[in-house]
Amino acid sequence: MEITFHCPHCKQELAVDASAAGETIQCPTCEAEISVPTPELTDIHGLNPIASSAAAKEEKHFVVPVRDAPPEVLIKQPTKTEEESTAGAKKLKIKIFRHSDCIEVGHDRYEEFVSQFLNKVGEENIVSITPLSYTHIDIATQKLMTDYALQIIYRA
User: Fold this and answer.
1) Are 155 and 95 in contact (CB under 8 A)?
2) Which domains does the chain have, with CATH numbers?
3) Cα distance between residue 145 and residue 77, in whole Å
4) In terms of DSSP bridges, do strands 103-104 and 144-155 run parallel, antiparallel, or are they unpaired?
5) Burial zone of 5 (CB within 10 Å; 0-12 exposed, 13-18 middle, 19+ buried)
6) Can you give the pTM of this predicted structure?
7) Is the Cβ–Cβ distance between 45 and 2 less than 8 Å?
8) How many CA atoms lie within 13 A of 85 on its CB side?
9) C-alpha 130: how far from chain center
10) Which pairing describes strands 107-108 and 144-155: parallel, antiparallel, or unpaired?
């Protein structure tokens, strides 16, 4: 913390550390010997960068709206009947089984994966089953390979 005071001889403004209070120092401008005054609460200036910033000096004029009626609701909550109707309805989903993804350690398990999924979903929830043909680059041979897949659209 600093003490700010003026030299009585040359009126130079001086700032000294608060620990030097009561000591005699030499003025750097007129070289007269002066005593540092004891600190008063108004003379002590702490280094507060926030207080000296432009944001602290800006005046803010906030206005709070005054209403006679309750404010309007910006986000409406769904009613219970809407929640019940959407909770009971199933959404459409899609699942694609690629033949190349169903080969494990040289064994073709494509039919096994598809049949497990169809049994889990159930026949009543299946909307569409579409066979697909696609091409990809085989990692081992670095050649373009044509393969097949199955696209299933179902309710879940």
Assistant:
1) no
2) 2-47 (2.20.28), 89-155 (no CATH)
3) 52
4) unpaired
5) middle
6) 0.44
7) yes
8) 5
9) 41
10) unpaired
